[in-house]
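lol forgot to send this yesterday, sorry. struct tokens for the thing we talked abt
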């Protein structure tokens, strides 16, 4: 099997819903159970990619069936592409200096090391406390020694992470993402899990009754959204098969993405501008 890293950078807030909830948030986003990190399920992403191979009658083209499979009950078969679950690699958080920072953590970086076969020297961050962090530049540090994210203050350790920031910048082609070299902050796993759970956007949605001019009964709800400028990534793989090599299959995906400007809409609420992402196949 051949694999490539598929980076997803949100241009607008993204909502991949986990269904209705009885909590304060009526419509939460999908998350990992054990870390609370937001995810895009592989099934959702596969559906979005497969839609690029649908014709004007919403029928899958023949080459699309080879890549994504057939659901015909009499001739069902698996596709050549393997689409993994997307996880957050870097999450935007409000900063007292520099407007905002992207946070990551040792766990997220170790996963990237494993999945992308890159060396990030993550072991150097072992023992990072909840009140400590590492910053890529003075763009977001106060007096070179402190970082303030939301209402939390962190002591900035004297360790160099610019090389990691440069490698992360190579993942995405979006010009905003390139600022990761100045805005990267590494916190420990616990604080990362806290921020990705508590610092997502929550918006109140309504539907106005055309006759009364007020909110229609039962049409008031709170929806959670992953903020814009969040970086997800996943592994996109392809199996070797007769007729089309694994490299050829991934090249087809690359060409189809380029044909739509490397922009995909993922998740719900497309008509109100949610889920537009810059995507890069590395």
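and heres what i got for the seq, position by position
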């Amino acid at each position: 099997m051949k694999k490539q890293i598929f980076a997803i950078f949100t241009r607008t807030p993204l909502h991949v819903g986990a269904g209705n909830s009885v909590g304060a948030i009526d419509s939460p986003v999908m998350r990992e159970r054990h870390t609370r990190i937001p995810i895009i399920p592989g099934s959702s992403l596969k559906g979005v990619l497969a839609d690029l191979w649908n014709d004007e009658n919403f029928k899958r083209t023949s080459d699309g069936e080879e890549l994504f499979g057939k659901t015909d009950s009499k001739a069902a078969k698996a596709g050549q592409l393997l689409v993994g679950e997307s996880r957050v690699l870097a999450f935007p958080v409000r900063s007292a200096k520099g407007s905002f920072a992207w946070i990551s953590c040792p766990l997220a970086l170790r996963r990237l090391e494993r999945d992308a076969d890159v060396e990030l020297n993550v072991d150097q961050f072992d023992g990072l406390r909840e009140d400590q962090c590492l910053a890529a530049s003075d763009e977001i540090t106060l007096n070179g020694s402190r970082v303030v994210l939301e209402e939390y203050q962190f002591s900035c350790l004297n360790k160099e992470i610019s090389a990691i920031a440069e490698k992360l910048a190579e993942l995405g082609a979006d010009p905003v993402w390139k600022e990761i070299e100045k805005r990267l902050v590494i916190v420990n796993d616990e604080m990362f899990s806290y921020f990705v759970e508590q610092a997502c956007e929550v918006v109140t949605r309504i539907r106005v009754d055309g006759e009364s001019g007020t909110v229609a009964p039962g049409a008031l709800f709170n929806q959670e959204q992953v903020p814009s400028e969040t970086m997800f990534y996943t592994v996109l793989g392809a199996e070797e098969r007769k007729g089309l090599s694994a490299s050829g299959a991934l090249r087809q995906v690359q060409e189809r993405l380029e044909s739509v400007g490397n922009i995909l809409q993922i998740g719900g609420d497309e008509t109100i501008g949610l889920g537009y992402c810059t995507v890069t196949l590395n």
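Residues 246-259 form the longest helix (14 residues). anyway ping me if u want another try
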